[in-house]
Design goal:
The complex is a heterodimer of chains A (448) and B (149).
Chain A: H1 2-29, H2 35-61, H3 80-87, H4 104-117, H5 148-188, H6 194-214, E1 217-222, E2 233-236, H7 242-248, E3 254-258, H8 262-274, E4 278-280, H9 282-285, H10 288-300, E5 307-309, E6 320-321, E7 335-343, H11 358-366, E8 371-377, H12 389-404, E9 407-408, H13 422-437, H14 440-445
Parallel strand pairs in A: 1-8, 2-5, 2-7, 3-4, 3-5, 6-9
Antiparallel strand pairs in A: 7-8
Helix pairs in contact in A: 1-6, 5-6, 5-8
Chain B: E1 5-6, H1 8-12, H2 15-18, H3 23-30, E2 38-39, H4 40-48, H5 71-82, E3 89-90, H6 92-103, H7 109-123, E4 131-132, H8 133-140
Antiparallel strand pairs in B: 1-2, 3-4
The chains are: A alpha/beta (448), B mainly alpha (149).
Organism (chain A): Hucho hucho (huchen)
Transmembrane segments (chain A): 14-35, 170-190
Pathway (chain A): Phospholipid metabolism; CDP-diacylglycerol biosynthesis; CDP-diacylglycerol from sn-glycerol 3-phosphate: step 1/3; Glycerolipid metabolism; triacylglycerol biosynthesis; Lipid metabolism
């Protein structure tokens, strides 16, 4: 019996040494041994094979494939004026400017039914559907049993993911976080020399690298010359809390957010010791002036790290970019936009906070194949003459959406939880009324 | 809901539908008389009105009952959206209600009233000051193609 425990202990020792040597040391010093690259290559080959198998079987059985690019239905995307004009086409135009026909309502009914079948907004709050299955049960929406080989590969995948990769990743992640707390607290005791900032940066990046290995992230950074500089604000599209890990792997940022209790609180306080972050009490967040003042002070100090802000305010599923809240654009610093796009084939990074809490989300992340993402640093932007905060925000949003290949929407991400304001309905009504009544000049020239 | 049925609130969470001036009417069309839940079957029946007409359907058995997405059934669907009290006529009041939903507060009552009167005048043929289904079809047939999504 004792021999058994001796063996187990020896095994654990070997395990830990391996982890330290193969994963932690490279992470600490920023070079790579090529293990993850090999893993990714094998993974890609396997997934391609699986896709081919599914496609051949589908062809044999004449299963209809849906094309995900076109959406579910065909729509005529004309504006209200164009489409109502079409509807009224064959009627003679009455002498008075405006017009109403019984069939005008058809336009609204049609748009309404189209929106019930498929609308732009609610689909952004759940995970993206994949074109082809990636051997994870969780993405298995309507893929059916194909063949024994495929099922065996899937079974092997389950084993690898849950029994080998997941414990490894959990170990790494806990090491990374513990190191972060210890390291930043230690650096916090040093007086404010240059050395302190350099050390603080190094500790942060190192721990984030370990965490990234803990999630098997493969990140490609593009346009590093546009990386955010001190005294600026970095804005990015938001998909999950992992965005922070991804961005901080390549630079240090000051974070803004609500101060939490518990484990998050420990992390936050530790990080705040070594370099200034901006953590708010929940009560303060409601006071916009206070928030704006603290941000402005931070931005105006050129020695402080760039602030990282996610203007959408909530997690979106990485197929689109939703409305940017104007608060961060009113501060007046230089804005460094960053576009983050995850590759859904290897693992779905979207945090559906209605469905999963943080812990189950992290476990899901650790049992996916990998997290692959592309990060584009866009050139800096500043508010131009005559442009107000909302227009500026929209300009930045379009740039990010364009770069990342995401759909640019102007709907508010807050619609995830809140209802839409009546104001928009009134706008539609106003537009329609102007078509019914006609323009002012027409009406004034014909008196009743 | 996630219990196999949809309620009115579930529909209202679709933002584009919520800002559609006639959104509430459309939502109502899914729910059978007096009920607050619709199951998948009922949902599909209502949506089936909007399928495009396929050519091979014309060759089908002529004695079978008309498919839901035939022209006249589509028009009947639109007619019922106007005709709230289901008396098979669109009265002036019912027309005014729909008009009011579409224009909001931007048009005065008198103007709206005269628009409604004019519309009824144009469509009404038997002089009963309301629009029956047959009169509606005559107006609607020119535009039926627009209901095909």
């Amino acid at each position: 019996m004792e021999d058994f425990w001796v063996v187990v202990l020896a095994g654990l020792k070997v395990w830990v040494y391996l982890i330290v040597a193969l994963l932690m040391v490279p992470a600490m010093f920023g070079f790579s041994l090529g293990i993850s690259e090999t893993y990714m290559k094998i993974l890609v080959k396997t997934l391609e094979w699986a896709t081919l198998r599914i496609q051949t079987v589908n062809k044999e059985q004449h299963i209809i494939e849906s094309s995900s690019s076109n959406g579910l239905i065909q729509r005529d995307d004309g504006s209200m004026e164009e489409e109502l004009g079409e509807l009224r086409r064959s009627r003679p135009k009455p002498p008075v400017g405006g017009d109403f026909t019984l069939s005008d309502c058809f336009y609204f009914y049609r748009r309404g039914i189209e929106d019930i079948v498929e609308d732009e907004v609610t689909q952004r709050f759940s995970s993206e559907e994949l074109v082809s299955w990636n051997l994870l049960t969780r993405t298995n929406n309507d893929f059916q049993y194909i063949s024994l080989k495929l099922t065996m590969v899937w079974g092997l995948g389950v084993f690898i993911r849950y029994c080998i990769l997941a414990p490894l990743r959990i170990t790494l992640a806990s090491i990374g976080l513990t190191w972060l707390v210890i390291g930043t607290t230690a650096v916090g005791f040093l007086p404010n020399w240059r050395l302190k900032y350099w050390l603080s940066d190094w500790v942060h990046v190192m721990c984030y690298r370990i965490c990234a290995r803990g999630l098997s992230c493969t990140i490609h950074y593009y346009n590093k010359e546009n990386r955010p500089r001190k005294g600026g604000i970095c804005v990015a599209n938001h998909t999950s809390p992992i965005d922070i890990v991804i961005l901080c792997n390549d630079g240090c940022y000051a974070m803004v957010g609500q101060s939490h209790g518990g484990l998050m609180g420990v992390l936050q306080r530790a990080m705040a010791r070594s370099c200034p972050h901006i953590w708010f009490e929940r009560a303060d967040m409601k006071d916009r002036h206070l928030v704006a003042k603290r941000l402005t002070d931070h931005v105006n100090d050129n020695t402080k790290l760039p602030i990282l802000i996610f203007p959408e305010g909530t997690c979106i599923n990485n197929t689109s970019v939703m409305m940017f809240k104007k608060g961060s654009f009113e501060i007046g610093g230089t804005i460094y936009p960053v576009a983050i796009k995850y590759d859904p084939q290897f693992g779905d990074a979207f945090w559906n906070s209605a469905k999963y809490n943080m812990v189950s989300y992290l476990l899901r992340m650790m049992t996916s194949w990998a997290i692959v993402c592309n990060v584009w640093y866009l050139p800096a932007m500043t508010q131009q003459e005559g442009e107000d905060a909302v227009q500026f925000a929209n300009r930045v949003k379009s740039a990010i959406a364009h770069r990342g290949g995401l759909v640019d929407l102007s709907w508010d991400g807050g619609l995830k939880r809140a209802k839409v304001k009546d104001m928009f309905k009134e706008e539609q009504q106003k537009m329609y009324s102007s078509m019914v009544v006609g323009s002012e000049e027409d009406n004034s020239s014909h008196s009743d | 809901g996630e219990n196999g049925t949809l309620s009115r609130e579930d529909f209202q969470r679709i933002p584009e539908l919520a800002i559609n001036p006639l959104g509430d009417r459309i939502i109502n069309a899914f729910f059978p008389e007096g009920e607050d839940q619709v199951n998948f079957r009922g949902f599909m029946r209502t949506l089936a009105h909007f399928r495009p007409i396929e050519d091979n359907e014309k060759n089908k058995d002529p004695t079978a009952s008309e498919p839901l997405n035939s022209r006249s059934n589509k028009l009947l669907f639109a007619f019922k959206l106007y005709d709230l009290d289901r008396d098979n006529k669109i009265s002036r009041d019912e027309l005014l209600q729909v008009l009011r939903m579409m224009v909001g507060v931007n048009i005065s009552d008198e103007q709206l009233g005269s628009i409604a009167d004019r519309t009824i005048q144009e469509a009404d043929q038997n002089g009963d000051n309301s629009i029956s289904f047959n009169e509606f079809i005559k107006v609607g047939n020119l535009y039926f193609v627009y209901l095909e999504t």
